[in-house]
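QA checklist item 7 of 12: single-chain prediction sanity check.
[x] sequence parsed
[x] length recorded as 385
[x] structure emitted
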Amino acid sequence: MASRRLAQLPHLCEVMHVESSLAAWPTFQGPGPFYVGGAMSGTSLDGLDLALVKFWHQDGRWRHELVQSTCLPYDQSPWAHRLPASYSLRGAALDEVSREYSQWLNAAFHEFFDGTPVQAIASHGHTVHHRPLEGLTRQIGQDPELAQGFGGLPVVCDFRVADVDRGGQGAPLVPLADAFLYSEYAVCLNLGGFSNASWTAQGLRRAGDLGPVNLLMNHFAQRCGHAYDQDGAIARSHPPDEGVLAALQDLAFYHQAFPKSLGREWVEASVLPLFDGLSPKIALSTATHHAAWAIHHGLQHAPDGEVLVTGGGAKNAFLRALLEADTHRTWQVPSAAECDFKEAVCFAFLGLRKLRGEINVWGSVTGAALDGCDGTILVETPLNP
């Protein structure tokens, strides 16, 4: 058997105008169908979401089918502790954790995708640092080990760095996929560690992070002895602290124009100190009410109509009830699979567009000077065939 090496391919394109000649992967040209895997790990640390998605272009638009999906809970692996521990690491120590996480992801990919018709995999990695105003975003799990054992199957990763290098926020990235895959909705809203939303206004896709959701709510639920607040039962049963709510609403982030994005660092530095002195249950209620306020506030200039609501927070019945107080909109939660795995579906689509040599990041969303065809392509190639 020939020895092998892992090659890291350069960006296919990094400019607003993309020539078709730049598309170096003929397998992914034409209308499809294409079978692409998506892998997503979010700030709420629930687990690794894996999806196999069928994409095809028909009647002038992209369509998709979620073929299969699973979540690998972090609480059943060492990464429940290793991922948050990595937030304080820098340099060689963080690089080593990233390589080990890449190896863990690779094993998960093989277990999930082997035996399927998968043609490519797109992996977000896990964000450990996100300070775009300082020109920094870092996702671990982007190393060549991701592609080990997949032969010529391309693995697309590291989607955010190029946009930050162009002066953008490096986030949110999902809105482009929203526009292509979920155009029937006026607004696409995801309730993960943070809430983020996208919509079309004046011919451009607008989007941004709105506020903390599961990252903050789960923090206080765990102080109440639960992994999360089932159906929002604890928050529903306790009043929020009105003074803390007012202080949260005064935070500078909420008075900045889009595009804008949030990171874990902001919650730790600016949000959590405001909860000092509150009991865990009152804090949880306050966090839940604030999550709803931040969404209503962030959507005040978005169009009325149907809102697609996805992500783990969509399962919180009390949070949904708070959102539904805005009767100008209809809040639609899709099937359980689509709700849970939409971000993995969207990153699979961004990976497909990368392989087609097409724009997959919009500067109108991230604040970058240019659109981009972003991500790094990893592929295992023969060293001495």
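[x] summary fact logged: The two ends are 9 Å apart (CA to CA).
[ ] second reviewer sign-off
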